[in-house]
């Protein structure tokens, strides 16, 4: 079965070089799952950190579910991520390298109905790297346009 993407971090590929990705489960409450299914999530400022041998997701805004009857959760609360111990150990080793961060790239539901987050091991881009990527994207668009024009005529 496929996956239903409910949120993407579009700025991640602009601001970072993504070196490696991995999938993790999320510990959520019922109303948070309902909000995710409605697509009410913002990953822009999100990041993950390792504390006491566990991985937590910070600054990911999952809006409150308006029809929930029980007490509302904080939309920006820290959410525990579910990873195998060997994956966490591997991440600890990689994160000790200078300049690496763990950021969420997308949140999606798998076929079994479980919410997953794709984490990226990222290295920050400098301003000139961002400019070069923008120039590369513009030139590839121009080439694509000219190819289409040549084919249409």
Structure keywords:
alpha+beta; Small Protein B, Chain: A; 35% strand; 4 helices
Reconstruct the topology from this structure.
Blueprint: E1 4-8, H1 12-15, E2 16-26, H2 30-37, E3 41-42, E4 47-51, E5 54-58, E6 61-62, E7 79-82, H3 85-95, E8 100-109, E9 115-124, H4 127-152
Antiparallel strand pairs: 1-8, 2-7, 2-9, 3-6, 4-5, 5-7, 8-9
Question: How would you sum up this structure, described in words?
Answer:
With 153 residues, this protein is of the alpha+beta class. It has a single domain (4-125), classed as Small protein B (Small Protein B, Chain: A), CATH 2.40.280. 32% of the residues lie in helices and 35% in strands. The chain has four helices and nine strands. A seven-stranded antiparallel β-sheet has the order 1-8-9-2-7-5-4. It has a two-stranded antiparallel sheet with strand order 3-6. β4 (47-51) and β5 (54-58) form a beta hairpin. It starts with a strand and ends with a helix.
What's a concise summary of this model?
It is built from four helices and nine strands, in the order βαβαβββββαββα. The protein has 153 residues and is α+β, with helices and mostly antiparallel strands.
Level of helix content?
25-40%
How many strands, which pairing sense, and closed or not: the largest β-sheet?
7 strands, antiparallel
Strand content: 35-45%
Number of domain modules = 1
Query: Based on helices, strands and strand pairing, what is the structural class?
Result: alpha+beta
């Amino acid at each position: 079965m496929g996956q239903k993407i409910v949120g993407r971090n579009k700025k991640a590929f602009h601001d970072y070089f993504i070196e490696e990705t991995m999938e993790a489960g999320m510990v959520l409450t019922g109303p948070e799952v309902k909000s995710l299914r409605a697509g009410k999530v913002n990953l822009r400022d999100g990041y993950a950190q390792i504390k006491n041998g566990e991985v937590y997701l910070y600054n990911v805004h999952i809006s409150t579910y308006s029809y929930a009857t029980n007490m509302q959760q904080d939309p920006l609360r820290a959410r525990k991520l579910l990873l195998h111990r060997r994956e966490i150990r591997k991440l600890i080793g990689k994160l000790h390298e200078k300049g690496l961060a763990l950021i969420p790239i997308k949140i999606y539901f798998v076929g079994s109905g479980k919410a997953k987050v794709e984490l990226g091991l990222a290295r920050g881009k400098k301003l000139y790297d961002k400019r070069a990527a923008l120039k590369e994207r513009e030139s590839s668009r121009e080439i694509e346009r000219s190819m289409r024009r040549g084919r249409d005529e």
